[in-house]
Amino acid sequence: MKILPWHKDYSVNISIIDKQHKNANAIVNDLFDAAQKKNYKEIKKLMKEFIKELQEHFDTEEKLMKEYNDLNFFSHKLEHDRVMRKYEKINDQIQKKKYPNITPEFFESFERWFKNHLLFKDYKLGAFLKKKGVK
Length: 135
Ligand SMILES: [Fe+2]
Ligand SMILES: [Fe+2]
Description:
4 helices, mainly alpha
């Protein structure tokens, strides 16, 4: 089962951003499966991948914002930094445990964050970059 199925409305129409959003969502879906199966090794591995993917993705968006002088850079980066700190903390806890589990709250809050962040930041960034000719 996919806890967070990809929806075409999630697209911001900038190929690298869409690809990274899809990747992050796919990892979250895999994490859900691993958590259902209590596959502890897989949970740890996927959680590390999730952190890496998110960091790369935020770096990509921030680099593009800087390159094209997006005035929303600071407020947008603030949301990235906040959520990154939160997931790094969760990851630290997971890596320390022998039998890590992931609560439903993790998936709910990621979905909420993702949709909210899309709506208030990433769609706007996508439209801004489109105007600058980025594909
Ligand atoms: Fe963003
Ligand atoms: Fe994003």
